[in-house]
C-alpha cells in the first residue's frame, strides 16, 4: 500500500522530496510530528490529541498457519 501512495504522490508532486523514517511506537511517531522532525506520520490506529486524522485505506489482517497449528484453532478462524 505505501509504495502505491508514494508513487501517486511523486507523480502529482515531483518537486517534493519524500524521506521515510520508521518508528516502532505510536508515541515516538507522534513525538516526531510534534517536534517538527517529520511532517506526517502513517499509523495503524487513530491517535488521540491535537492531530488531524485522514484514513488512507482499510486493510484486512490475516493469520496464516499450517493446518492443525494451534493458532488456527482459535475462535473465529476459518479454513
UniProtKB/TrEMBL annotation:
**Domain LysR substrate-binding residues, every copy:** 2-72
Question: What organism is listed for this UniProt entry?
Answer: Actinomadura nitritigenes
Q: Pfam families, alphabetically?
A: LysR_substrate (PF03466)
Q: Which domain of life is it from?
A: Bacteria
The name this protein carries in UniProt is LysR family transcriptional regulator substrate-binding protein
